[in-house]
Amino acid sequence: MKLKFTKMHGAGNDFVVIDAINQQLDLGPEQWRRLADRRFGVGADQILIVERPATADSDFRYRIYNNDGSEVEQCGNGSRAFVRFVSDKGLTDQRSIRVETMSGIITPRLEDDGSVTVDMGAPILEPARVPFDAAGLEGVTEGRDTLWPLTVAVKGEEQTVLVSTVSMGNPHAVQVVADVDAAPVLETGPQIEHHPRFPRRVNAGFLQIVDRNHVKLRVYERGAGETLACGTGACAAVVAGIRRGLLDAPVQVQARGGKLTINWAGEGQPVYMSGPAETVFEGEIEI
Fold first, then answer.
1. Residue 1: pLDDT band by 50, 70, 90 thresholds?
2. Is the separation of the CB atoms in 101 and 94 below 8 Å?
3. Which terminus of the chain is less hemmed in, N or C, by CB atoms within 10 Å?
4. Which run of H or of E encompasses 29?
């Protein structure tokens, strides 16, 4: 079948976006992997699917596939690309839309300057709901947060890292590092992603504090590897930093592919993420 698509990115986190409202779509994991392959397909960190909503009070349904073919609950940078796509394609004339995801409703809003702000909902902080198995572990209190020890191997030697566990509709383990550029992201990221304490795997965040309103961040994403930016990872990192007493909102997050601004008022409040969403090119592929 021939499939029309749009290639987009948000701060370097890149996507294949597919309109499943105006074309038939019946693909499986093998086809998702081929689409995302950077040599044999289009190339992307994630594939985003635009569908009709399942409920009357929503505007669209949003589905996300990682480049390994797995479907996941949430993608923050992708949500910004989503609202840009449906606006550019004339699928809506609203600046703010309600979008169904596997983890609940999000409300991205297209701003006058072309950026997109997304209400990502309130973070989930209880370990069991992240989900994270804390049984038998002794946590370390820092500020209002509890840090959990994980054992990883660095150059063949076991080390213990302390992580904050946060869900932004998908699970994150955030550790603070002195120098994000020197952090062993590619070595320990996969170990954390597949750590048995995380039954659904996890996104591994490496956070460097620049000052109380600026951070640098790298994220090894579940099912995608390290990406140039991770929107939910930025939200989770800022939530962890604020809870640990290290940051004050709003926080500018410098990822390798660009900047995001994260605002959070504290426990029980939604996290707001603002940043760019850009179209790279459009095409058609036979798959």
1. confident
2. no
3. N
4. helix 29-36
Contacting residues for 33 by C-beta, under 8 A, at least 6 apart: 41, 67, 68, 69
231 assigned to a ligand binding site: yes
Three-state DSSP class for residue 274: strand
96: exposed, middle or buried (Cβ count in 10 Å: 0-12, 13-18, 19+): middle
222 is in an annotated binding site: yes
Q: Is the bond preceding 184 in cis, omega lying within 30 degrees of 0? A: no
Distance separating alpha carbons of residues 229 and 260, to the nearest angstrom? 9
> C-alpha distances in angstroms, 242 versus 134, 174, 204, 205, 282?
22, 12, 18, 15, 40
Please identify which residue in the block is written with the tokens 């058609």.
284
Alpha carbon distance 7, 133 (integer Å): 37
**Residue 141 is assigned to a ligand binding site:** no
Q: How many CB atoms lie within 10 A of CB 94?
A: 13
Which contiguous run of DSSP H or E holds residue 250? none
Q: CA nearest 100: which of 60, 147, 151?
A: 60
Tell me the catalytic residues.
Answer: 75, 230
pLDDT in tens, 3-57: 999 999 999 999 999 999 999 999 999 999 999 999 999 999 999 999 999 999 9
pLDDT-based confidence at residue 140 (cuts at 50, 70, 90) = very high
- For tokens 């929503």, what's the residue? 58
CA 35 – CA 67 distance, rounded (Å): 8
Strand partners, 273: 118, 262
Q: Are 86 and 50 contacting, i.e. CB atoms less than 8 angstroms apart?
A: yes
Whether this model's pTM surpasses 0.85: yes
Residue with tokens 């500018």: 252
Closest CA to 161 of 184, 144, 186, 129: 184
Tell me whether residue 151 is annotated as binding: no
